[in-house]
């Protein structure tokens, strides 16, 4: 019993010791892999002075004239540049991009929503026909169809024949009439 | 085909029959000794054959014979053509009767209009 209790205490302690030794062998705490970016390459706070702006533009591989961060109104993204909200579909399909499927060159600043603007997803390409022309055509078509259908309801079209004549008092029982009540008598004549 | 529609909607709706209110004149008017239409198949027979309600009309007996023949000679399709023709011509006669009913209604309406005009003129002259 005592041996069993000791065994319950000893083996988790041994496992923890083994884990610590393995971790110490791999890398010290707080270290990062060489493939990761250094701290000065990560996004930082909103740039206040022109020097900070120049440094941020250099960090993002942009010209200082082009660099424009998101406005600092509490909902901004620090010093990340604000690029035009255009999807990758709008980029030239015939230019030799470094990454043709992404239509993106190496080192080019990526939009904050780049993963949304890839060609499999959101497409902001302009329409072939101007928007107001499209909407005018559609509304014209819809209104004409609705008016015609409405006219067809008010003034229905029919053949110049009388209604079809059915036997058994216009199929009174077959249409669910009460068998205990006397049905209204309907007699059809030959003509 | 649209002449009656033009007359009804654009011209004079009183003279054109309304297919939803037909017949609006007594059946014996102008046609003395009219015979009522005879129904050969019974309601029980039509119900037993589970004929759709739209087809339980005055040609039901031809339809029953046709269905019986088709059931007996399946899958040979051409052996029931004479019965099919008899049912089709019965339906045709029925449609022609509907056209005649429409025309009768129209002529009675025109006659009613003429009588009204005549009485109207008569009252005007007498006054």
UniProtKB/TrEMBL annotation, chain A:
Q: Which terms under GO biological process does the entry name?
A: mitochondrial electron transport, NADH to ubiquinone
Per UniProt, the keywords (alphabetical) are: Electron transport, Membrane, Mitochondrion, Mitochondrion inner membrane, Respiratory chain, Transit peptide, Transmembrane, Transmembrane helix, Transport
Could you name the Gene Ontology cellular component terms for this entry? Answer: mitochondrial inner membrane; respiratory chain complex I
> Its membrane topology, per UniProt?
Single-pass membrane protein
Identify the InterPro entries for this entry: NDUFB8, Ndufb8_metazoa
Q: How does it assemble?
A: Complex I is composed of 45 different subunits.
Family label: Belongs to the complex I NDUFB8 subunit family.
Q: What does this protein do?
A: Accessory subunit of the mitochondrial membrane respiratory chain NADH dehydrogenase (Complex I), that is believed not to be involved in catalysis. Complex I functions in the transfer of electrons from NADH to the respiratory chain. The immediate electron acceptor for the enzyme is believed to be ubiquinone.
What is this protein called in UniProt?
NADH dehydrogenase [ubiquinone] 1 beta subcomplex subunit 8, mitochondrial
Task: Identify the gene encoding this protein.
Answer: NDUFB8
């Amino acid at each position: 019993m005592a041996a069993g209790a000791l065994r319950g205490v000893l083996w988790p302690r041994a496992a923890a010791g083994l884990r610590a030794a393995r971790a110490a062998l791999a890398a010290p705490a707080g270290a990062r892999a060489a493939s990761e970016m250094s701290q000065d390459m990560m996004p930082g706070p909103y740039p206040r002075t022109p020097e900070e702006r120049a440094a941020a533009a250099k960090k993002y591989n942009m010209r200082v004239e082009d660099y424009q961060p998101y406005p600092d109104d509490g909902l901004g993204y620090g010093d990340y540049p604000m690029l035009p909200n255009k999807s990758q579909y709008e980029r030239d399909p015939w230019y030799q991009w470094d990454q043709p499927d992404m239509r993106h060159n190496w080192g080019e600043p990526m939009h904050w929503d780049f993963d949304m603007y890839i060609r499999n997803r959101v497409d902001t390409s302009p329409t072939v026909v101007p928007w107001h022309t499209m909407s005018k055509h559609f509304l014209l078509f819809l209104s004409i169809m609705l008016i015609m259908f409405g006219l067809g309801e008010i003034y229905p079209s029919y053949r110049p024949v009388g209604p079809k004549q059915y036997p058994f008092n216009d199929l009174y029982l077959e249409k669910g009439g009460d068998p205990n009540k006397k049905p209204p008598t309907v007699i059809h004549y030959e003509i | 085909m649209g002449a009656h529609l033009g007359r009804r909607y654009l011209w004079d709706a009183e003279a054109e029959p309304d297919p939803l209110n037909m017949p609006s004149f007594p059946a014996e008017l102008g046609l003395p000794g009219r015979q009522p239409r005879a129904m050969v198949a019974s309601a029980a027979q039509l119900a037993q054959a589970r004929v759709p309600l739209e087809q339980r009309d005055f040609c039901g007996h031809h339809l029953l014979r046709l269905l019986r023949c088709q059931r007996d000679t399946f899958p040979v399709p051409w052996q029931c053509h004479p019965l099919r023709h008899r049912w089709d011509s019965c339906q045709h006669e029925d449609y022609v009767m509907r056209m005649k009913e429409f025309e009768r209604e129209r002529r009675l309406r025109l006659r009613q209009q003429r009588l009204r005009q005549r009485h109207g003129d008569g009252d005007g002259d007498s006054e």
